[in-house]
Specification:
Pfam families: ABC2_membrane_2
Radius of gyration: 24 Å
Mean pLDDT: 85
Number of helices: 12
Organism: Paenibacillus tyrfis
Distance between the termini: 30 Å
Largest sheet: 2 strands, antiparallel
Keywords: Membrane, Transmembrane, Transmembrane helix
GO molecular function, one term: ABC-type transporter activity
Number of domains: 1
Oligomer: single chain
Helix content: over 70%
Protein name: ABC transporter permease
């Protein structure tokens, strides 16, 4: 493992020496700043005190629950909403109020863009060496092929981690600059089995970032595999990005077929289990994790097998 680290460092240096890396980083910060500023300047229509708004919401929800035609499932969700709002009022927790956490929450919407940037870097990390003719110079070194390929993969994920940390840190600083630190220790409320539970806002947001990053890792691995097998960065980038945007829609359209639950794109969004609404009925978190691991092993096995057997002179 120690012999692998110099290779990873070398591949990371290649990534961060390129101007496109810093253009990608700067674009994320600019997008984050614009989104946060627009949200800050967009004043809500309802200017009432937050407790007054929640009290009105509770009264309106109670009226809705009096409808005899309403199903039990919908009534349960409305009852949970009432419990949530009452708890917030009683414990003086200003839920739904804008705070420093709004920009951090907005940052999760940029994970799709980070995924695209990572796909570009991961795909070019291998295919670019073939198209540029530098792969021969790399493979004449004493390092084994699997170590060379693994170092490129780790460096690509390291780049993704760098972008995620950058977005999280930038959004947090923007939140402090725009809203101050008044809500720094504010919890997030969740209702489970009729009981309101307080969660750490930081832990909840980190969980959201982590779960959304599953799609990032899987699609970057897919692009990495395609570039290794076909030696074409354009094909790997274009195909991966296209599937990233249409894959879930295709699965959603075919969700009535039982075999769809074995398709990768049915499992990329693990937040579906937090929301309690799996994309396909009957799927569980454990099943999705198993499917993701199976696809991950398949992608990596193909990458290492093809790269290990390929004639670089071809």
């Amino acid at each position: 493992m120690l012999r692998l680290m110099p290779l990873v460092q070398n591949e990371s240096m290649k990534i961060f020496r390129r101007w496109r890396t810093w253009v990608m980083t700067a674009s994320l910060i600019v997008f984050m700043t614009l989104l946060s500023t627009v949200q800050f300047m967009d004043k809500p229509n309802d200017q009432r005190d937050w407790k007054t708004r929640l009290t009105a919401n509770i009264q309106q929800t109670e009226q809705m629950m009096s409808d005899a035609r309403m199903g039990e499932g919908q009534k349960q969700r409305l009852q949970e909403s009432i419990l949530h709002d009452r708890y917030a009022i009683e414990h003086d927790i200003p839920v739904n109020e804008r705070s420093l956490w709004n920009p951090v929450t907005l940052g999760t919407s940029l994970i799709s863009l980070i995924t695209i940037f990572t796909i570009v870097v991961a795909a070019d990390n291998v295919a670019g060496e073939f198209s540029g003719g530098t792969i021969k110079l790399i493979l004449i070194r004493p390092a084994k092929r699997w170590k060379v390929l693994l170092s490129k993969y780790i460096a690509s994920l390291g780049f993704a981690l760098f972008l995620l940390v950058t977005v999280f840190a930038a959004s947090w600083l923007l939140g402090i600059g725009l809203y101050g630190t008044g809500a720094l220790h504010q919890p997030i409320l969740d209702v489970r089995d009729g009981i309101v539970i307080e969660h750490s806002m930081v832990a909840s947001l980190l969980q959201t970032y982590a779960l959304n990053s599953v799609s990032l890792v899987m699609m970057a691995t897919f692009g990495f595999m395609i570039s290794t097998v076909f030696r074409s960065s354009s094909f790997a980038i274009g195909g991966s990005i296209a599937l990233l945007f249409v894959g879930t829609s295709i699965v959603h359209g075919l969700r009535e077929y039982p075999w769809v639950k074995y398709v990768l794109f049915a499992h990329l969004d693990l937040t579906q289990y937090i929301k309690g609404k799996p994309l396909i009925e009957g799927m569980t978190l454990g099943f999705s994790v198993m499917m993701l691991l199976a696809y991950f092993v398949l992608f990596m096995a193909l990458s290492f097998f093809i790269f290990g057997k390929r004639d670089v002179a071809a």
